[in-house]
Fold each of these.
Amino acid sequence: MRWRAEQIDETRQRITEAAVRLHTTIGPASTTISGVAEEAGVTRLTVYRHFEDQDALFEACMGHWNATNPGPDLEAWRRLEALEARATRAFDELYAWYEARHEELYPIYRDQAAMPGSAQLGMRAQFDGIAAVIVGGGDDVPPRQAAVARHLADFWTWRSLVIERGLTVEEASAAAVSMLLAVGP
């Protein structure tokens, strides 16, 4: 029985890792169940036995990717009381994290509209949470400042500043901090 359970877990893991490889190379919009099955070395039916729908496969895929690519420590940011210090650390770490993973992230963000609704909501909630930590959370955060923090935390903002405009990660982070502070309360 234990051997069978291990085989099931290993097959599920292979399928999940295959989906991650495809999502981070060709993108979610071009990833099919047949493609995942082929990449994992299983049949389509096997994929469906392990994942009842696209939402379940995306959830497993995102969970695996996030576990192997942990993001910056938001709790460390939260402990910094001053907005400038918190924003500096946050953008330094977040933008460096993007820099290290941008080739894998690009197909995912490019194809975000093709993802199941639950995956899109999860990604939005993740950025909303990051922005809330940067500005200090709470009900007293000015809406403009929260909106600007959310914009600056976005992968596309980092990509625009670093990849498209040629800033270094350090320059982009410093610009993000300046923009956030310029909005003021």
Note: The chain has ten helices and no strands.
Amino acid sequence: MAIELTVGPVAHGGWCVARHDGRVVFVRHALPGERVLARVTEETTRFLRADAVEILDASPDRVTPPCPFAGPGRCGGCDWQHASLDAQRLLKTDVITEQLKRLAGIEWKGVVEEVPGAPDGLGWRTRVQFAVDREGVLGLRRHRSHDIEPVDACLIAHPEVENVGAEVMNWRNASSVEVIASNTGDQAVVVAPKPRRTVAVPDLDASVAVFVNEGKGHTRVVHGRNHLVERVGDRNFQVTGSGFWQVHPGAAVTLLDAVLEFAAPQPGEWALDLYCGVGLFAAGLAEAVGPEGAVFGVESESAAVRDAERNLRDLPQARFARGRVESALDHFGIERADLVVVDPPRAGLGREVVDRVATLEASRIVYVSCDPATLARDLAWFGDRGYRLADLRAFDAFPMTHHVECVTLLVKDAV
């Protein structure tokens, strides 16, 4: 079914909002202010989802998508290829502003900032996970679908990811193939086989490490070493297998600088780094608090904890432990901290962790988030516990997509 719509404001998730016959319509491939012909893709009693398939009156912010696989019914990896980069950042600014106002009652007057390293919004993604069709051809999922769009190149993939050439090889019996390129020149392919199947890995350049993801956190090394090395400033960070690292080449240093600016760690302070990964933020904190201070990192992935210990082995004031933040603070008897840094997954902290972190009575909490909705929800809960938002910076670490990275500073209200 096709309907004509006048498109309204942007919504979280890469949509714009319109109305038709009294119902809300969430529209992709449109921009605010446009008049479009849209094809309905999903219908519920409360709302419709639709793709703009014909632009009747175009926004001045509209551009021709640079990728041939972008568009209605095609690859779902990018949301805003039809918008200029400046417009994309304004759309993300509007989303953050709306989420903070609606969910937390917070007025924010900032703007999403560019992250250095991808001036045209392309060639930035240093980790790309491809799906694999029945014939062994790599592709990317279509939006809200298990269907695969075969691709022979991804324009937002970093050039060193594309240089592996995985898209033009056959990966029969694989369920996914992740290609990784580090900023020190390391390259790796992580293959996840289908259940009870074996993947014949095609011939790759000898320098490319190959891992097989065998499930339950276990990765087997087929070729090369079991980790990649990322460099930030004068420090190397080992990342085992497909462990977490920021995918934009400029994001790690940008976020580290923002975290340290907000945290303002002082010599002798006691800091916590929760969801610490391989120790990026802990390194900056430990150097600032010095040998008379201490940093304690908590991370649920055992490989990341081992990496963090190795990466910061020259900083004895930094210690790490494996555990879920929900229980780790109690398990290790942590009752206070001068400052806390949290960098949770997209689901955010949740009420239990917010309440527990608030009991630490830290004077500053720095919250790094990749989801404005869960961030706003958690900020509202922190507000209930006496913490107010003192500052927020937002970064376009995922150009062409709806995703955005935020760094916030919370301070304890005076009693």
Note: The chain has a mean pLDDT of 96.
Amino acid sequence: MPLDALTARPLDLPFREAFRHASAERSSMQSLWVSACGGGFIGHGEGCPREYVTGESLTGAQAFVAAHVDEWRSDIHDSGSLRDWVERKHALIDRHPAAWAAVELALLDLFAQQQDCPVERLLGLPPLSGRFEYSAVLGDAEPGRFAAQLARYVQHGFRDFKIKLSGHALRDRQKIEALTAAGIAPHRVRADANNLWHDPGSAADFITALGMRFGALEEPLAAGDIDALDLLAERLDTRIILDESLLRIDQLDRLADAPVRWIVNVRVSKMGGLIRSLALVEAARSRGVSLIVGAHVGETSLLTRAALTVADHARAHLLAQEGAVGTHLLETDPVHPSLMFGAGGVLDMECLGIAARPGWGLTVVTPAPAS
């Protein structure tokens, strides 16, 4: 069926409480919301442009959509032509990954609805099933709030934790003290530094002084400095999680010398859509590189749903999963049901009952307001 129309607008919904890390502090989400119409159906997609991740702005993402919508209406009319466009335009998507992710997710939703099937069947994948277990992610909150949030996660049975480091010694030591007091094993904790340090020595000295040997360390140095990250990993005898440092599949080639040292954080928006995320999973698996399926702070349940497809495809090499916060964090979620982890961080597809529904299986319940 033809693509009749495609529109993009900002989506800005407030958080229940602010979330802070070394690169930004947010009290509301910032997404690009795309709707694609054709044959009486409407598909929806979401992307999260972040200047400090992919160099994209919300304004630039909207401009990208406006510049290419006529081309998409002419060239893309089903999942096959969509895959072809992704392959032919890889360099363009590299420059606008979050914006394209929103478009691609909307088109996948539309085409799957037109064929009356879930997105997984459209892509030749098995249906979603089973349980997905999420990590507790704690922001750079002041000590009292951090301890209270940690206590709630422990009470609800979470087993894996990710904390945001601030680079302030006392503040970060207090986080370690709270984790230790809660009886959480160090190998269950990942520390995300959001590119805090400029050299391996400074990073190693700071992290060693904290007194906890983390299970893995995420983005401690300047994004993309693989050689320096390799030195740091060797000095601390730890694994490094690459997020901002790995945005494209070809960057996996730089990890060939010691694949077990690296973990890739796959975020659908950051990678430039679901098709490219699935390809990255296969490429990482063939190279022996482990994976985390992550999320941007403030994603709606639409991106959570797309990330479930990636996590299911990556299960054998999946070390952890992040996201599925829904209205735990957002005041409102624009889709129903809101996909949220429950006790123990578990999201159970059988309980949700959406896996067999057409498209993403979600119902848009509130319009995407302009910010």
Note: The first helix runs from residue 58 to 75.
